[in-house]
């Protein structure tokens, strides 16, 4: 076939790389292939793969039989790191389906597995004297013994599900919250509350469907150019449909970030992985500009005036500039004294990347950070 499907479901279920026929049928039913296929260059694909790549990038061209699971094992030394490859290649809309001829950008730290033969297997029942203990090898998987450090999540689940999205076209929201089971008793709702939605079977809503709930916030203008960037919608929670009628449905709130209110809008749920990263060399006050793309902090979560480490921000760079989740950038401010070096403020790591903007977490900040401060990709 001109397409290959990831076998990670079967591996997780069976612990082996080969699926039995019933599991294969089940896996095939989870994610039908994206449609429609189109000819891109010399091959068929449903995606819009990139044709240019940053200088020095490692790019693998998919061949029949490839999966993200296998590519992660080959290039990263661990198949369970396949989400990193998916995050690095956002044009792949469904991780289960990759197509021969499409490019997969690697550009991630590779860790060589430590050979088992290098370590002596010792019976735990044996007594180990003090001098014998000194001869034992250090933990091969400790941070000090792994090249580049230990991969770790850049943030938490709430960092990717409870911040905000920047929306240019507000017609993207198919449904909204129109009522609630306890509408006479309360004006805001949280986990376990039941809501009534304005979409039903006729609009494609079925029991079990999940949706993000977003609350309309404010128009966002660029802090320097003052151009219209769109409207900020805060991510306030998630709902699951209990049952659907012809043009309405009943849903339960299953995840809450902030109170949900009548009039909040819905988007179909898609899982958002938290980027798995290896910390880069930390940004330093003495770092010189590196010539990579620069941008601005345009929004701070909760409108905080002076943000710091662990706070969430939105920047005006995105997919067009080649950003990907897990990438880092230096935070800085132009020096008000002409001819003086820039003022380095800290560092951010990107959580989600979209067209025209990205959300990020401040991973290091030794000075207050505000809207209008600048970033430079690392």
What does this structure look like?
With 378 residues, this protein is mostly beta strands. Helices cover 12% and strands 31% of the residues. It is built from six helices and 21 strands. The chain has helices spanning 8-14, 21-30, 68-76, 82-88, 130-135, 157-161; strands spanning 4-5, 38-40, 43-45, 59-61, 97-98, 103-105, 152-153, 164-167, 175-180, 194-197, 210-221, 228-244, 249-256, 265-268, 276-277, 294-300, 312-315, 328-333, 343-354, 357-365, 374-377. The strands form six sheets. It has a six-stranded antiparallel barrel with strand order 9-10-13-12-11-14. A hairpin with a 2-residue loop joins strand 2 and strand 3. Helix 3 (68-76) crosses helix 4. The longest helix is centred in the first third of the chain and has 10 residues, at 21-30. The chain is globular.
